[in-house]
Specification:
alpha/beta, globular, homodimer, seven-stranded mixed beta sheet
């Protein structure tokens, strides 16, 4: 009997299905990672194991067939506005790589209070002491960039990091001002653009940063996980230092990072991604309109106003009130939306949740707004 | 004009094609990573960005939909013969994770002389001093396990590592004997089974190891990159230590590792992989027969004899002689084989190369043998 249950659950592995395929996607983690048609084809073409490495030349970013060298050494630096770029397993791995090569256990770094949790965990892995530059608190949670300057003066950190935008409120702090501060005090500056690179125009050099980090699966229409790391030329020898024994292998990358198909989807989507950042004004205007419409229903948008990013965080007391008196409790919202073909807030959330308007068009967003209206009147 | 060239090369990215698809595959890096049909379906189903994390529960190995928890916490430990298992970006990242959590800069470790280059680079990333346990040299390159004992006695290392089998000769050293030595001297023991786990039966506990490492793309019919790491319960708190700030996030894994489709292919192929290791005797017999047939043509098999793994290394002076007098030089062999639908030695190699018989059946291998014969008579 136990054996039968085991076999059944084993066989289930061979038939894995995704429940949210084909829905209108508002889930902030997902809207920037939907594959292009080119990436879908590449996924099938390069699915087998190590197929990216058929023509290995000793290191991933030197492979010419498929054209990884061209992508990583020419297109990517141009796109990121940096001197040197490489491929990482994701944004968090890029952060760890930079921290691990520039700082050592016991060193201090400054980060914005809105940073992703992985900024902290990456710092813990290196043994760093993390100091937060505070935000303004409810409801806008703005990070005051001048907070960096005063903290740097108190005790110069080894590194500073800014999340641009943060993944909680979609705030876009003054990254350029931080570039001036970093240069003034000569502190290496990491711009974490996991929700920027591939969605909106952003160049490392224009921000005055030393490093720029992007996420393929979050914002560059790629299968997960894959990330990009750009840097100034002066950091190449530190961060991309070669092995003392194997002269073509980069120590921090353990030789090669994404030796598989997520990188191929990143490359296949790149021509599209490079273009789509030019539509950013329309993305912002769509997000502002959507936010204003939802506020009319009693939702309250947190974070900066007017908002300048598709990632929106709402307090939704009207939905929370309903959840307190329905049988499904917090899950009613997820179910009601899913029944309408919409995938947004995490199952269970009604009090406060994040939505992203990046992947939906105005017609779909109109349908989402109407759906929220219909749900509210159904229960009120 | 420059702009036109750029656009052309940019557009090429949207149409990436793999040249070796559908060929008889003898390339050792590739034979264990060919996707099952179930994995091919899963690849399409979960291709989009972060789709694995639709129902995030805070950490990757706790996700129940798809059934990652079941896979990582039940099936995988059973399969690996260990107490606790987790998912890594690959075998090299698993090695780094263990080294980084158990040792610190300046510590020494012992590794076999046949180790993969990434063992060295992972150790360099931690700042470890690496001592090699020598092999017997040409032609068998056997690692004498008792070499570990004498080196441990000289100076106790922080860790020992054995490559089982190594990726150069396909030798299977006495891993069980090393388990006894590790226990006698109380030194943590990593078994790197990148070419074992998923191909042949191997259990950590039977070998007396503390850690076992496998590679999804190398030997578990998965898209790259993804790996598995199994360990004794006593190491869980060290290697999988939780963040001091985010109590459900493992520091060494930066929260979550393979948050994307390679993990899904690993899971989808698992029922097949679990079964295929039971055919190992036939795999070995096939490899021995193939090796003997090629030796009749003047090739010389290096590594252990009789050979006990599908990874075979040949010295091929007869092919090298030809390369010296043909127009294509070393590339003639790659071209001749490819024209016959065979993908094996790296382009350019004729003097010495590796082949793996894992993915080809006896009929296909017979065709490969005949093809080598035909190539030899064509040029002689």
């Amino acid at each position: 009997m136990a054996k039968q249950i085991e076999n059944k659950s084993l066989q289930k592995l061979a038939n894995l299905r995704r429940q949210h395929k084909g829905l209108i996607t508002l889930m902030p983690l997902q809207t920037g990672g939907l594959l292009t048609d080119a990436a879908k084809e590449a996924l099938t073409e390069f699915g087998d194991g190590y197929s990216v490495c058929d023509f290995c030349q000793g290191s991933l970013c030197n492979v010419t067939n498929p054209a990884i060298r061209n992508f990583a050494q020419e297109f990517l630096p141009q796109f990121l506005g940096c001197d040197v770029a490489t491929i990482t397993h994701g944004a968090r791995e890029a952060k760890f790589t930079v921290m691990h090569s520039l700082a050592k256990a016991g060193d201090s770094i400054l980060v914005d209070a809105n940073r992703h949790y992985t900024t902290i965990v990456a710092a813990e892995r290196v043994g760093l002491h993390v100091i937060d530059v505070p935000n303004s608190g409810y409801p806008e949670f703005r990070v005051d960039i001048d907070g960096y300057a005063s903290l740097i003066k108190e005790k110069p950190p080894k590194l500073i990091l800014l999340t641009y935008p943060d993944g909680n409120y979609g705030n876009l702090p003054d990254a350029r001002r931080l570039g001036e501060i970093a240069q003034e005090y000569n502190v290496p500056y990491i711009l974490n653009g996991a929700y920027a690179v591939g969605r909106m125009p952003v160049k490392m050099e224009e921000m005055g940063a030393d490093f720029i980090i992007g996420s393929g699966h979050k914002s560059m229409a790629s299968a997960g996980p894959v990330g990009v790391l750009g840097m100034k030329r002066k950091w190449e020898e530190t961060v991309l230092k070669k092995s003392g024994i194997y002269s073509n292998k980069e120590i921090e990358l353990l030789g090669c990072t994404v030796r598989g198909v997520p990188l191929i989807t990143l490359m296949a989507s790149f021509p599209h991604v490079k273009e789509r950042v030019n539509n950013w004004d329309e993305q912002v205007s769509k997000a502002q309109w959507f936010s204003a419409e939802l506020e009319k229903l009693g939702f309250k948008q947190l974070g900066e106003k007017p908002h300048r990013h598709d990632l929106l965080h709402f307090d939704t007391p009207v939905l929370y009130e309903i959840s307190k008196r329905v049988r499904e409790r917090g899950y009613f919202l997820y179910k009601e939306l899913k029944a309408r073909g919409i995938w947004g807030p995490q199952p269970g959330l009604t009090k406060s949740f994040k939505l992203s308007t990046f992947a939906a068009d105005r017609q779909q967003l109109g349908f989402v707004i109407d759906s929220f209206k219909a749900i509210l009147s159904k229960y009120n």
